[in-house]
């Protein structure tokens, strides 16, 4: 117990016999209640994430979306991710992630993406100015798309940065991701992708934040020279309110702008729902 002195702890550990306490008449010794050990279920971690890329505001149809250079809108899909992990220590979690796409096209069915395992290390680095959380993920070619492409494996390292500043009610963070893809025949494939996702949020109400988040990436093809990178997807940023419902539910509804063609004519509706345990 923390209240024990070092000398008393030494005596107990060395096996010395302590004198019995002298009790006043009429008093009794109450047995100390043993501290309840946490159940193994207390170490389970679960996360469900759903992402919705919606329509342009100039061509509003909730079932469809339209890329920045797409001439016509097409059916969108709901991205779903379920993560189940187990905390092997206070900072390290091991787990598995299942992801898939639920198309809003009535003619298509739910499609699973590649199954993956992950290791998450909370507070990997912590200073007065920054806190860094790391992840290492291994993706297996379980989806039809990966098998058809001859993929063998993909690995990702990610660092989540939370910057500490004296600015009250403001939060600054960023995520950096490095993903390597391995194929049987990599000659025409993308073998390496880097991504940066900075974010700024400000508290506007007790359970409401205003969020500004960017998504920027670059991809390298196996056949290209070493430093020849191209855009992997459409770089974008979204802004809108984030609602916290208790400590386990978060909902973001935002407008997504594309850096290639900034303007409300190409902006789309974006939403994200996260439920954690």
Characterise this structure.
The strands form 2 sheets. A 12-stranded antiparallel barrel has the order 1-4-5-7-8-9-10-11-12-14-15-16. By secondary structure, it is mainly beta. The protein has helices at 6-14, 144-148; strands spanning 44-56, 64-65, 74-75, 77-87, 92-103, 111-112, 116-126, 130-139, 151-163, 170-183, 190-205, 208-221, 229-230, 236-245, 249-258, 268-276. It is globular. Residues 1-29 have low confidence and may be disordered. The longest helix is centred in the first third of the chain and has 9 residues, at 6-14. It starts with 5 loop residues before the first helix and ends with a strand.
Report a brief summary of the structure.
By secondary structure, the chain is mainly beta. The protein contains 2 helices and 16 strands.
Q: Between the first and last Cα atoms, what is the distance in angstroms?
A: 31 Å
Shape designation: globular
Low-confidence spans: 1-29
Mean pLDDT reading? 86
Q: Got a strand count?
A: 16
Rg, Cα atoms, Å:
26 Å
Key structural traits:
single chain, 5% helix, mainly beta, two-stranded antiparallel ribbon, 16 strands
């Amino acid at each position: 117990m923390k209240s024990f002195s070092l000398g008393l702890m030494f005596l107990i550990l060395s096996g010395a016999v302590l004198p019995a306490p002298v009790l006043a008449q009429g008093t009794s010794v109450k047995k100390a209640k043993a501290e309840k050990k946490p159940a193994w279920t207390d170490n389970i971690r679960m996360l469900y994430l759903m992402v919705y890329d919606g329509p342009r505001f100039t061509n509003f149809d909730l079932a469809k979306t339209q890329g920045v250079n797409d001439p016509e809108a097409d059916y969108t899909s709901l991205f779903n991710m379920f993560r189940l992990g187990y905390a092997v220590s206070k900072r390290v979690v091991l787990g598995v992630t299942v992801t898939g796409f639920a198309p809003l096209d009535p003619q298509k069915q739910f499609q699973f993406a590649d199954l993956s395992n992950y290791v998450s290390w909370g507070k990997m680095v912590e200073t007065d100015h920054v806190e860094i959380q790391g992840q290492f993920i291994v993706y297996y070619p379980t989806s039809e798309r990966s098998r058809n492409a001859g993929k063998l494996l993909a690995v990702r390292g990610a660092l989540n940065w939370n910057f500490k500043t004296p600015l009250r009610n403001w939060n600054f963070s960023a995520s950096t991701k490095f993903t390597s893809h391995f194929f049987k025949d990599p000659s025409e494939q993308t073998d390496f992708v880097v991504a940066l996702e900075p974010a700024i949020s400000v508290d506007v109400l007790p359970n409401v934040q205003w969020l500004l988040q960017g998504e920027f990436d670059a991809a390298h093809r196996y056949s290209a020279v070493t430093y020849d990178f191209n855009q992997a997807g459409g770089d974008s940023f979204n802004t809108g309110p984030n609602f916290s419902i208790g400590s386990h539910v978060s909902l973001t509804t935002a407008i997504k702008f594309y850096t290639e063609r900034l303007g409300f004519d190409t902006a789309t509706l974006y939403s994200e729902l996260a439920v954690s345990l």
